[in-house]
């Protein structure tokens, strides 16, 4: 059995989970001041909205991570799903693609969250 | 190792992970939705609590139904790699469904709150307090002609 594949999966899962959790915490910590402004200084509402935003961010990021995890069978490689690594250099190549895709996804979600927080700051119906 | 080990492990881990995440998300929604509902019902704690509870039960029902439907795998895993792939695909689909339900609840809370704010503004504009200065704008009892 190829032992490099489970190693690649473990590195990918741990790395992306950590990044997603850290980024969502960062957004909430630095966005709270804007959310407070949108809710006219109501701390209970600010806390609640921040918590729900963080949960939503984590859910979507982790779902994308799990859905984009797999390697393709030999013969049906694509950019999103490269074939499983057979050597250590191939492990690095494959992991860089996998991690890069997920970091791009998390980066895009980061900017979408910034827009959402700005909408909260401006007030009115948000979603 | 019996041939059923990996498929069984697959189902057991799927149930454990998705049930745990559903309950965590449901509790988070229950806790964080409370201030929004309180504002919506303008301080009627009993109503806010009961609506919150009903929303939570609905959330659990829909999600547990979704998780049960997603359980079956067409190609059972035979080794660790296939187990990780199979499990991650199923769990990812379940989390996506969970995210959609969470978003629906967020929209609900936001909608309820803005509607309550609009109602409050309407009441302030058209139904002044008895001892407040008389409004010059149109009122339901005295419409502008």
Classify the helix fraction of chain A into a percent range.
over 70%
Order of helices and strands of chain A: HHH
Q: Give the largest interface.
A: A-B, 32 and 33 residues
Q: Which structural class do you get from the secondary structure elements of chain A?
A: mainly alpha
Give helix % range of chain B.
over 70%
State the separation between the terminal residues of chain B, measured CA to CA.
87 Å
The computed structural class of chain B is mainly alpha
> Could you list the spans of chain A in which at least 5 consecutive residues all have pLDDT below 50?
none
Number of strands of chain A: 0
- How large is the count of helical segments of chain B? 3
Tell me about the biggest sheet of chain A? Answer: none
Overall pLDDT level of chain B: 86
Low-confidence stretches of chain B: none
Shape of chain B: rod-shaped
**Number of distinct beta strands of chain B:** 0
Rg of chain A, Å, rounded:
18 Å
Report the C-alpha radius of gyration of chain B, rounded.
24 Å
Biggest sheet overview of chain B:
none
Oligomer: heterodimer
What percent of residues of chain A are in strands? under 5%
Write a brief structural summary.
The complex is a heterodimer of chains A (127) and B (145). By secondary structure, chain A is mainly alpha-helical.
What labels describe this entry?
heterodimer; A: 127 residues; mainly alpha; elongated; B: mainly alpha; 0% strand
Describe the structure.
The complex is a heterodimer of chains A (127) and B (145). Chain A has three helices and no strands. With 127 residues, chain A is an all-alpha fold. In chain A, helix 2 packs antiparallel against helix 3. The radius of gyration of chain A is 18 Å and the shape is elongated. The mean pLDDT of chain A is 91. Chain B has three helices and no strands. In chain B, helix 1 packs antiparallel against helix 2, helix 1 packs parallel to helix 3 and helix 2 packs antiparallel against helix 3. Chains A and B meet through helix 1 and helix 2 of A and helix 1 and helix 3 of B.
């Amino acid at each position: 059995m190829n032992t490099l594949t489970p190693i690649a999966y473990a590195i990918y899962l741990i790395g992306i989970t950590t990044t997603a959790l850290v980024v969502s915490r960062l957004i909430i910590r630095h966005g709270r001041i804007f959310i407070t402004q949108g809710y006219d200084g109501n701390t209970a509402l600010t806390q609640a909205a921040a918590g729900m935003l963080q949960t939503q961010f984590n859910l979507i990021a982790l779902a994308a991570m799990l859905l984009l995890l797999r390697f393709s069978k030999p013969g049906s490689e694509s950019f999103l799903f490269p074939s499983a690594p057979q050597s250590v250099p191939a492990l690095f190549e494959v992991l860089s693609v996998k991690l890069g895709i997920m970091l791009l996804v998390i980066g895009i979600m980061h900017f979408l969250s910034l827009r959402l927080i700005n909408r909260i700051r401006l007030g009115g119906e948000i979603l | 190792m019996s041939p059923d080990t990996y498929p069984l492990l697959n189902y057991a881990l799927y149930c454990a992970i998705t049930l745990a995440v559903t309950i965590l998300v449901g509790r988070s929604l229950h806790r964080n939705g409370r201030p929004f509902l309180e504002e919506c019902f303008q301080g009627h704690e009993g109503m806010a609590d009961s609506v919150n509870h009903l929303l939570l039960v609905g959330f659990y029902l829909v999600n547990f139904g979704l998780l049960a439907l997603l359980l079956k795998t067409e190609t059972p895993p035979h080794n660790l790699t296939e187990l990780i792939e199979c499990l991650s695909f199923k769990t990812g689909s379940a989390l996506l469904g969970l995210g959609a339900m969470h978003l629906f609840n967020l929209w609900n809370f936001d909608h309820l709150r803005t509607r309550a704010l609009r109602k409050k503004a309407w009441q302030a504009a058209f139904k002044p307090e008895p001892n407040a200065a008389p409004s010059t704008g149109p009122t339901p009892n005295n419409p502008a002609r």
